[in-house]
Design a protein that fits this description.
Helix content: 10-25%
Number of domains: 1
Largest sheet: 6 strands, antiparallel
Number of strands: 11
Length: 168
């Protein structure tokens, strides 16, 4: 399946998508000092450009077929995401939270950097995106946030993938 097919499938779920820069020999933004390779928006207004309109999505990916996929979080897409960052101790924090509160089963993707994205239905009350407030290495992606979606390519060379998918 091509990236555009994945982007359209997310849009069909009601998730607002937009193209993100891709990685290869560095970031497609052509900034040799890019600190957010393969994770930042290609569109002028970033996540504010996110849409479920198939014609717009087709146009974006026809121009950049290898673009990574971003999904805007919060009420507009109906999702909030816990972003568990492996390199910042997030996996340990998440284990500790589950040991205390019980195991959580939800739609989960593995990031290219070894972390996790845990997807939840957005509540009626508006939640803001946060960084490290829940626990070390755990960010919340809600209003004003977005996540990189499978099968986007991470700078590590690994793809984001759904937890229940086999390795390619």
């Amino acid at each position: 399946m091509a990236m555009i097919d994945h982007a359209l499938a997310y849009a069909e779920r009601g998730w607002h998508v937009f193209p993100i820069h891709s990685v290869g020999e560095g970031c497609s933004c052509n900034n040799n000092a890019c600190e957010d390779q393969g994770k930042h928006p290609r569109t002028p207004h970033g996540l504010l450009d996110a849409t479920t309109e198939a014609d717009i999505i087709r146009d974006w990916w026809s121009q950049c077929p290898d673009a990574n996929i971003g999904v805007r979080t919060g009420k507009i897409s109906g999702i909030v995401v816990l972003d568990i960052d492996a390199k910042s101790g997030g996996l340990e924090s998440w284990r500790d939270l589950q040991d205390f509160n019980g195991r959580v089963d939800t739609l989960t993707s593995q990031t290219g950097g070894g972390g996790l994205h845990l997807f939840f239905e957005a509540p009626e009350v508006e939640l803001k995106s946060t960084s490290g407030q829940m626990a070390p290495g755990i960010d919340t992606k809600a209003e004003g946030g977005y996540v990189v979606m499978p099968p986007s390519l991470h700078i590590s060379g690994r793809r984001y993938r759904w937890e229940d998918e086999d390795d390619e």
